[in-house]
Amino acid sequence: MSTMFREAKQGAIGIRKQKRADLVAEELKRLITQRNLRPGDKLPHEVKLQQMFSVSKSTIREALKSLEVQGLISVSTGPGGGGTIVEVPLDRTFQLMQNYLFFKDVGIADVYTIRRLLEPELAAGAVAHLTEDDFAALEHTIDLCDPASKAAAESKMLDQRQEDLTFHDILAAANPNPMLRFCCELINEMLRQLVVFGNETPACEHERFGAANVSFHRRILEAARARDAGEVRALMSAHMEECTHYVTRMNGRVHGRLVLDSEMTRRTWLKPKESDES
User: Pfam families per the record (predicted)?
Assistant: First the structure.
């Protein structure tokens, strides 16, 4: 048994009794940190891990499963199998966040307070890093939501509100600040998964909301193409204020619930050319 593992096991006594698999999982996290393992790197094979920690195969597999559930590794079987480091997916992070927020009183006003603070800076910071592919993708999302377009006429209004968020996802992906990007992407996923509108909300309200979003998105895109970060910031600030107004008027609310694993399929935006071919 490794010295570190023995010390971890002894340190747990008097605090709480930890399962061997939990202790091994903690040691594997230390190993990932100490070796600076990156996505795509592999952990030692099961037999080697058994020797390192002097535990059974079942204990090692339980520890690996724990790390897989946390989103830190993927586990494969076979001769070349074992644990491979992966980047923790946003959808898993969102699910864990919602587990926490489920027991909190989070309202739509709380969500939009954060959006009003973060989205203008997110958009402004993205301007210098947007590529021609990004501009094309932004234009594509606008077309999908434009009431005058054929694509919008063939889609449902709530699907269009989902597509509105893709516009913000593209800006987030271009922003080099990982913390700001992370926060805004989590909020976008929260809006997708948890925000609902009152059944009494008339269709014309959704139409007005969609048209207002398209108008702001077009102006933001134009300013971004001009590389005018200040104008993008100002437009996004006004856009978030208007969004708050519409969502409040349409009785939008956060539907507090636990998000299921089966719902955790991360939405990705497609460039127009790829979308047309699908």
Answer: FCD (PF07729), GntR (PF00392)
SS (H, E, C) 85-141: ECCCCHHHHHHHHHHHHCCCCCCHHHHHHHHHHHHHHHHHHHHHHCCHHHHHHHHHH
What b/e sequence results for 103-113 when a residue is b if at least 16 CB atoms lie within 10 Å of its CB, and e otherwise? eeebebeebbe
Do residues 67 and 28 make contact, with C-beta atoms less than 8 angstroms apart?
yes
Q: Which helix (H) or strand (E) holds 73?
A: strand 73-76
Q: What is the dihedral of CA 173, 178, 180, 181, to 10 degrees?
A: 20
pTM: predicted TM-score of the whole model, two decimal places: 0.77
List for the chain the helix, strand, coil content (%; round to 5).
65, 5, 30
List, in order of start, the domains of the chain with CATH numbers: 3-85 (1.10.10.10), 90-277 (1.20.120.530)
- Count Cβ atoms below 10 Å from residue 66 Cβ, excluding itself: 19
Please name which of 220, 214, 221, 239 lies closest in space to residue 118, comparing C-alpha atoms.
239
**Rounded CA separation 15/124 (Å):** 48
